[in-house]
Amino acid sequence: MDRIVSLCGVNLPVKFHRILERYGDNSVAMWDVGIAEAVDQIVDLRAQVVDDIHLYTMNNPYISKRIHEVVRPLFVLK
Which of 4, 35, 52, 62 has the most crowded CB, counting CB atoms within 10 A? Predict the structure, then answer.
């Protein structure tokens, strides 16, 4: 992660550093944290009236399914 960040020349938010420190050695926890972060971003985008979301889940159907299960009600037409 540090190498990618240095190549991009970006700074990671403090929250992300804390997540890595706490869960970085636990791949299942990191997946869950990533899913939670994606859901938070999607909820925020929907609140801003964004209608379409494209997920990059590295072809991982588990992650796509979990995110879809949580955010699906946000996209139900009235």
Answer: 35
Please, what are the averages of pLDDT over each run of 10 residues along the chain (78 residues)? 84 90 93 94 95 90 94 85
Alpha-carbon torsion (50, 55, 56, 57), positive or negative: positive
Distance of CA 73 to the CA centre of its chain: 18
Other Cβ atoms closer than 10 A to 44: 10
pTM: 0.79
The tokens of 59 are what? Answer: 């072809």
CA nearest neighbour of 34 among 9, 16, 59: 16
Please report where in the chains the tokens 């379409």 appear, as a residue.
52
Alpha-carbon distance of 5 to 30, in angstroms, equals 18
